[in-house]
Amino acid sequence: MGKLNVDGTEIQVLQIEEDDYISLTDMVRKIDNGPALIEKWLRNKNTIEFLGIWEEMYNADFNAAAYEEIMLEAGLNRFIMSVKQWVSRTNSKVL
Q1: Predicted structure pTM score
Q2: Alpha carbon of 87 to those of 12, 30, 44, 45, 76: distances in Å?
Q3: Residue 5: which H helix or E strand, with range?
């Protein structure tokens, strides 16, 4: 796993086969209300759908039943999802 340094902020870079992936949480860590940006992103139904597809492809332990429950809630005004909630409810892989 490599790292980038952008304006004094270290951002993890994970390489899987020939592809590089960067850490979104590292990118927003030093921004005011950075975690809130991730939570806003997680409120989006399209984001949840993308994460579910990703996990189904790469995580044999993914809790698909919990994901389906989340998808029923996603997109509603009252829907809120944090990274911790996503990981604990779906058994998502955290890198």
Answers
A1: 0.72
A2: 19, 22, 16, 16, 20
A3: strand 2-6
CA distance 20 to 15: 4
Domain extents for the chain?
Answer: 1-30, 32-95
Query: φ, ψ for residue 73 (rounded to 5)?
Result: -90, -30
pLDDT, residue 20, reads 85
24-69 confidence digits (pLDDT tens): 777 777 777 777 888 888 999 999 999 999 999 989 999 999 999 9
Sequence-separated (6 or more) residues with CB below 8 Å from residue 39: 80, 81, 82, 83
Q: What is the pLDDT of residues 75-94, one digit of tens each?
A: 899 999 988 899 999 999 86
Task: Give me the helices (H) in the chain, please.
Answer: 24-28, 34-42, 45-58, 64-73, 83-90
Neighbours of 74 (CB within 10 A): 19
Residues in the chain: 95
